[in-house]
Every structure is written in C-alpha cells, then in structure tokens.
Amino acid sequence: MKAAKQMYERRKEKYSKLLLKQKKLEGNISNLRLGVFVAGICDAVYAHLTQSYILCAAIFAVLLVSFIYLIVKHERLIVKIKYYNLLLDINNDSLNRLNGEWNKFADAGEDFLDDNHSYSSDLDIFGKNSLFQWINTAKTFIGREKLRDLLSEVEGDSHDIRERQEAVRELSTKLSFRQRLTAEAMVTSEKIHNPEELIAWGKESKDTFRKTWVIAFFRICPVITILLVTAGFIMNRIPYYLPATALLFQFGLVSYKVRERYKMFSIFEKYNQDIRVYYKMLKLLEKHKFSSTLINKIKDNIKSSSKLEAFKKVDKLSSIVDSMSNRRNLFYIIFNTLTLWDFQSIIALEGWKQQSGHFLKSWFDAVGRIEALASLAIIGFENPDFAMPEIYDEKDSAFEAKCLGHPLIVGNRVHNDVTIDGKVKVILITGSNMSGKSTLLRTTGINLVLAYAGAPVCASSFGASIMEICTCMRIKDNLEENISSFYAELLRIKKIVSESESGKRVFFLLDEIFRGTNSEDRHIGARVLINKLSLTNSIGMVSTHDLELCDLQQTNDKIGNYHFQEYYEDGRIYFDYKLRLGPSTTRNALHLMKLAGIDVI
Asked: CA 451, CA 376: separation in Å to the nearest integer?
C-alpha cells in the first residue's frame, strides 16, 4: 500500500506540473492569436491606405495560415489540458481510496441493487459503502455491467477464473495503461450511454442505399444541380427555370420521409461523443502489448473481425458522424438541398455498416471486459499483501483461508483463519452481541465473491472450490407483495435447501435464522435446518445467539462450534473479534443495556 501511495503521489505531482506548463502555453498561444488577428487588421488598413495590394495580400495569406494554425494548436492544447486534469483527478481519487475515503465516490452501483439476489445485498456488493464503490473505475455502460456480472455470479469454470487471475495480475502492473483507459472514457462531458440502439442499428440493413444505381443517382444529381445553378444564377448562360427546377426536385427528395431520416440521425447525435470515446479506448487497447492469455484472446477477437484494426474502423464511423454534426444549423437546409447531404450520409453509413456494423457489439464488449478487469486489478496493486486464491477442481465443497480479513475495513481490520471442508461442513458461530459474528460471515462471503471474479482476496492464503453463494442475513419486509420479513426469510432458506438437496454445491451464510418467531420454534427450526444442510454437498456458516444449538456437535460430527468473546476493563466492554474454537460461554446483553443507560433489575 505504501508503494502504491508513493506512485500515486508521484503521478499527481507529474500531471500537476504538466498541467501548469500546458496552461501557460495555452495562454501564450491565445496572446499570439490575438496578435496575429490585430496584425491582419493592420495589414488590411495599410493595404487600403497605400494600395500595396500584392504585398499586403501575401502578408495577409501568411497571417491567415498562422491564425488557422494557432486555432488548431489551441484546440489541441485545450484537449490536452482536459486530459491532464482527468489524470490528476484519477490519482487524487486513488489516494482517497487508499486513505479510506472511497465511500465518497459518486458511482456506488446503486442501479445494480437487488434485494432478491442470492447474496449481493447481504454482502454489500453494490450501493453505498460497497465493493463496487471501492474498486470500480469502469466508465462505459458495458464496462460497468461487465464488472457487475463478475461480482454477481460465477462466470465460467476454474480454468476461466485462472485466466482472469492472470489478466488481473498483469493489469495490476500496468498503472499507466489503466489510468489512461479511464481518462479516455471520462473525456466526454456526458455519461456514456447504453449502446443498445447503436448496436441494433449496426445489425439492421437498408439494401436500397447499397445498390449501385441508387448510389450513382444521389452522387450525380447534386453535381448536375450545382452545374445548373452555376450556369443559370451565376453566369447567366441558361434560363433560370432549369436550375430552379433542379433545386425544387432535390428539395422534394430531402423533404420525403424526413422524419424517418431524422429519427435515424438522432441516434448518431446521441452517440457522437461515445463513438469518439470508444475509438480512443480501442486504439489504446489494440496498440498496447500484453502477455496474459485472456487479454490477448480479447484482442484477437477484435482483430479477427476486420482486416483493419477496430479502432480505425470506429474512427471512420466517427468521421462520418462528425460530417453530420451541422444538421441543426439554419443554413443546413440550403446545403442539404444543394448536395443531398442527408443521402450522402446515409450511403456512407450503410457502406460502413455493411463492412463493420455487426462487429460493434464485440468491440464494445471488449472495451467493457478490459474495464472490468482493470477495476479488479486495483485491489492487487494497492494491496500487494493480498493473496491470489487457489480454485479447487475437486468435486467436494471446500473453503480454506488463513488470516482472512474484510477488504473494505481499512483501519482496524482483524484477521481470522477459517476452514470448512468435508470433515466439518457447517461452522456454528456463537458469541455475544457486537462481537463480530455477522462481520465474519460477510468477510467470508465478500472474499469468495472476489475469488470467483478473478481478483486477489484479503488473506495470506485462500482456496475454495466453485460453489453457489447463498446468504440469509438482511431480510426485509416487502410491502408491495405483502410479505413479512419472517416469510421472506423462509422463502430464502427454502431456496438454499432446495439448491443444496438438488446436489448443487452451495456456500451458505445464515445470520440469526428464524429471528422473527418465538424462541422455541426458532430453536427447533434451526436444529432441523442445520442438520439437513450438513447432509448435503454444501458447506457454510451459521451465526446464532442460541447457545443450545451448540450441542448439535455431539450427535453430528459435520458441525463445528466456534465463538467470539468479549472482555471488560474499567466497567467497559471490549472485543478482539478473534474466532475461537468451541461454543461461547458469555452473554453481554444486560451489560450493554446498562451501558446504554437502561436500568435492569
């Protein structure tokens, strides 16, 4: 973590200096441009007073070229300044993440919250103070979704996970690439849209505008009309009605089905900046060399879809879209009538679509997958002491971790060893209030989520077989469906039991089960449930206040008892959050009531 902080600080200093230098240069160019403009005016006045037209015209031409050059230079500097500002912000955010201030990041993935998901709500995967908020650097719509998918389900088998691990490990060493990728996505001032409409456009075809005679017609008509306008209105060589008729004919063409064309063009108005962003990101990806198998597979899929690099194809599309950018100009109707520019644009778009349109989804997906992997790579870069998990291939469910800690807890993180295998399938955790039972369950679950995603985990060593993660921890009432929290808990547990008894490997985390009923029913229900789960191919952890459940171990050797304990000093209660073997022997509810100022007789 210290090395990462030093690197972020060095990069922050570097971009601050570059930003200062570019801003100074931008100011000088602005002054130069003003000077050239004033010189041009003086040159024009001098020419008028002295009638030295030839000399002054030559000087004016030089000044005009210089002025245009300075405008172009100034625009490029503005882009560069914005880019350096973004890189400076990225390194500031990185330092904030190291300092534990990541929960202030704007994108917490709250749009991915799902109370019905088997674990994401219980384990703080999305939303405020979540895993997503901690690591996400994906800015494209698909990139965020790809990261969501990696954190919401197990994608592929153990081989796929190992390929992701290799890719994440390599990306963790490529800080510059990762930050540039993020900066390219942030250049646009607007949020990058869902590319669904653009992808759908790329798949459909309008054969009419691909026919040779149609293309020839719309190419030749404007040429004839411009010649007629020149001969009739400018040179007065032919009657006016000829160019007028040609203009009326073309005006009729551009007026025909104009709303249908505007609907299509509005798609490109919406995605204009997005296309430019994807071009930059694809260029960065395709130009960069990687050694990991997965990233090279992603790159190969991009290359195999076209003879040219994907970024060059997207750049061509961007150029076509840019040529349509003045459609809302007041003079566009005149230009469009004269040149039939709407149809020239459609022909160009259809030509591009015919060659490359059906590859848009694979290109956008490639960028999104790299963004998701780059987000995971942050974990290893900033936490070099985190372990890359071993994914077991054997049939039986297993979970083994040494010095396991919660990755989202920075300051006072406590580590514990946890082992659940064929010998002990259910760990029963008892302990007093606030001792750390629920936190340990979330610690185990969130690290397993990271392991399946292909990321390092907060442990010195970690191994697990592939299992479905199912939790029952934060159950809420559903007023819309008239479901109480207790019934919602029953539905969740029923699902876990069904999945387990079907032969699937489930990793379950149950926190204070059946809390919504009386103690006797809760106790009986918990005993039946724990015994039932211990007979399946599933493993997991159950936290409870019911110390009576600890005697389950006497009749079922698949159940192991562990506990947390507290200690007292000067009338105050303290916890060390260390997991210990055996059942709990202490209670603290009455003491906590007293500390809260409630008199207990």
From this structure: 11
Residue 235, number of CB atoms within 10 A of its CB: 9
Residues 6+ apart with CB under 8 A from 35: none
CB atoms within 10 A of CB 18: 16
pLDDT of residue 107: 95
In whole angstroms, what separates CA 134 from the centre of its chain?
Answer: 12
What the block records as the tokens of 140 is 């494209």
Q: What is the residue type of 287?
A: K
Average pLDDT in the chain: 88
CA atoms within 13 A on the CB side of 481: 9
3-state secondary structure of 42: helix
Alpha-carbon distance of 376 to 454, in angstroms, equals 8
395-401-407-411 Cα dihedral, nearest 10 degrees: 170
- For the packed helices 293-303 and 158-172, what is the interaxial angle rounded to 10 degrees? 90
- Maximum alpha-carbon separation in the chain: 114
- The span from the CA of 168 to the CA of 174, in Å, is 10
Cα angle 147, 152, 156 (rounded to 5 degrees) comes to 85
pLDDT at 166 exceeding the cut of 90: yes
Residue 482 pLDDT class (50, 70, 90 cuts): very low
Residues 6+ apart with CB under 8 A from 398: 392, 420, 421, 422, 463, 464, 465, 539
- 485 burial class (0-12, 13-18, 19+ CB within 10 angstroms)? middle
Q: Which of 198, 168, 155 is nearest to 363 (CA)?
A: 198
CB burial of residue 395 (10 Å; 0-12, 13-18, 19+): exposed
Quick one: DSSP state of residue 325?
T
Distance, in Å, from the CA atom of 430 to the CA atom of 583, rounded to the nearest integer, reads 6
Q: Which of 264, 262, 268 is nearest to 336 (CA)?
A: 262
Closest CA to 429 of 568, 565, 261, 554: 565
Closest Cα partner for 458 from 442, 474, 471? Answer: 442
Report residue 479's pLDDT band, with 50, 70 and 90 as the boundaries: very low
Pairing type for strands 559-563 and 566-569 reads unpaired
Distance (Å, whole) CA 314 – CA 360? 9
588 and 600 Cβ atoms separated by less than 8 Å: no
pLDDT in tens, 37-86: 888 888 777 777 787 778 778 887 888 888 888 888 888 899 899 999 99
Q: Give strand ranges (E) for 363-408.
A: 390-392, 399-404
Whether 144 shows a pLDDT value over 90: the answer reads yes
Are the C-beta atoms of residues 243 and 235 closer than 8 Å to each other?
no
The one-letter amino acid code at 226 reads: I
pLDDT tens-digit readout, 333-388: 888 889 999 999 999 999 999 889 999 999 999 999 999 999 999 999 999 999 99
Per-residue tokens: 507: 């990793």
Q: How far apart are the first and last CA of the chain?
A: 51
DSSP E strands, 496-545: 506-511, 539-543
User: Does the structure show a pLDDT above 80 at 158?
Assistant: yes
3-state DSSP assignment of residue 2 = helix
Indicate whether 588 pLDDT > 70: no
Could you tell me the sign of the dihedral formed by the alpha carbons of 430, 434, 438, 443, in that order?
Answer: negative
Express each pLDDT in 416-459 by its tens digit.
Answer: 999 998 789 999 999 877 788 999 999 999 999 999 999 999 99
The 10s digit of each residue's pLDDT in 330-347 is 788 888 889 999 999 999
